[in-house]
Amino acid sequence: MNRLMLTASIAELKALRHTPAGLPAQDLVLEHASEVEEAGQTRQVKATIRAVAFGAVAERMRKQVVGSSWRFVGFVTNQRVGKGLVLHVQEFQPVSTDSSGAHHGRT
């Protein structure tokens, strides 16, 4: 199964583009920061992730504010150009700051 759920803030929104088939596509960069338990120790985790949304999700995404925090759900695949992975966002919803203060940004 290839499904990823990630809480992250929008670090960068590129200009909305369209695929050759005319489908809206929104490229963005996400930033994640949290604390996790690993081998009995607390670890600070930070990640910058490239992402893309298509269709109606892209239309909604382009209206969001850089710095706002969301829960993103989708799947990962290889980037078409370059190395690494890209998250294909299939849905997203706002998140609020949790009691640990791990999530920041406007929703």
Automatic annotation (TrEMBL):
It comes from the Bacteria. InterPro entries: NA-bd_OB-fold (IPR012340), Primosome_PriB/ssb (IPR000424), Prisomal_replication_PriB (IPR023646). Keywords: DNA replication, DNA-binding, Primosome. Belongs to the PriB family. NCBIfam families: PriB_gamma (TIGR04418). Homodimer. Interacts with PriA and DnaT. Component of the replication restart primosome. Primosome assembly occurs via a 'hand-off' mechanism. PriA binds to replication forks, subsequently PriB then DnaT bind; DnaT then displaces ssDNA to generate the helicase loading substrate. Involved in the restart of stalled replication forks, which reloads the replicative helicase on sites other than the origin of replication; the PriA-PriB pathway is the major replication restart pathway. During primosome assembly it facilitates complex formation between PriA and DnaT on DNA; stabilizes PriA on DNA. Stimulates the DNA unwinding activity of PriA helicase. This is Replication restart protein PriB.
